[in-house]
Specification:
single chain, alpha/beta, Rossmann fold, Hypothetical Protein, Haloacid Dehalogenase-like Hydrolase, Chain: A, domain 2, 2 domains, six-stranded mixed sheet, five-stranded parallel sheet, 10 helices, 14 strands, 32% helix
């Protein structure tokens, strides 16, 4: 049984630490896999609007798992084929908790990022390169308030992201959020908090996508580096953690590869896929 689908985390896995580019070896390995008929599926905490150029320009990238599995986008048909949103009422409760802190809070909805103008000054506090911060500025939509957005989407939103939280406050908020049964709490970076509907995960979205395509876990490879990759790694029979990954990701994976700076994704693809 050969590999028919490769699910790839973005930040810290495929992408270098600039969060924008990949090594030539990784790009070549992905292109070779696509030419062999393997489905290469980006699986990211990002929204569709922030898909890196390398994937937007690569032929054969049809499906994208977005917002930690809250939606799956079919790029060929230009439509969402699976969604697991966080109800607007739950988001309102979370925003109430966050009111005293003035954090950069982003709502992911409909493939786009929204932020309130009053919190945008915090963008410069993000621990990213100037180029990636500029990319965030270009892709997020400024609102006076989230209220109109939530009223227009009573079915819910994909994700709520706290982009950068100081360590002690992060611990406090994490504990509070874990007590809300309707949501899941994960992180893809050392200082952020990502909130989704309970049950939404990259693994859940990957399972739904594979079932719709007639693909079983024994035909799937997943590669990731962080806590928001765990369910995806648990789903795939060929699960690979990055050397630069968290202990949580490594515990969930059956195999380990080199770091994102050392062509880890390329090495994993070359090891398990007949190129």
């Amino acid at each position: 049984m050969g590999i028919r689908l490769i699910a790839l985390d973005m930040d810290g896995t495929v992408l270098l630490d600039d969060h924008l580019t990949v090594t030539p070896a990784v790009q070549l390995a992905m292109q070779k896999a696509v030419k062999r008929g393997v489905l290469v599926v980006p699986a990211t905490g990002r929204v569709a609007a922030m898909l890196p150029r390398v994937f937007l320009e690569m032929e054969g990238i049809r499906y994208v798992i977005n917002s930690n599995g809250a939606s799956v986008w079919d790029r060929v048909e230009n439509r969402v084929i699976y969604t697991n949103p966080m109800p607007a009422e739950v988001v309102q409760r979370i925003l109430k908790i966050l009111e005293p802190y003035g954090l950069l809070t982003q709502i992911y909805c409909g493939g786009k990022i929204y932020a309130e103008k009053r919190s945008l000054k915090r963008v410069n506090d993000l621990p990213f390169t100037a180029a990636f911060i500029e990319n965030i500025r270009k892709t997020q939509i400024e609102l006076e308030s989230f209220q109109a957005l939530l009223q227009g989407h009573p079915e819910g939103v994909e994700k709520l992201n706290l982009a950068h939280v100081e360590p002690e406050l992060r611990k406090k908020l994490w504990r509070q959020f874990e007590e809300i049964p309707e949501i899941s709490v994960v992180s893809s970076a050392g200082s952020n908090i990502e909130l989704n509907c309970a049950g939404a995960s990259k693994g859940d979205a990957l399972c739904h996508l594979c079932e719709s395509l007639g693909i079983v876990p024994g035909e799937v490879m997943a590669i990731g580096d962080s806590g928001n990759d765990v369910e995806m790694l648990q789903y795939a029979d060929y699960s690979v953690a990055m050397d630069n990954g968290t202990a949580e990701a490594k515990a969930a994976a059956k195999y380990c590869t080199a770091s994102n700076a050392e062509d880890g994704v390329a090495r994993a693809i070359e090891r398990f896929v007949q190129l």
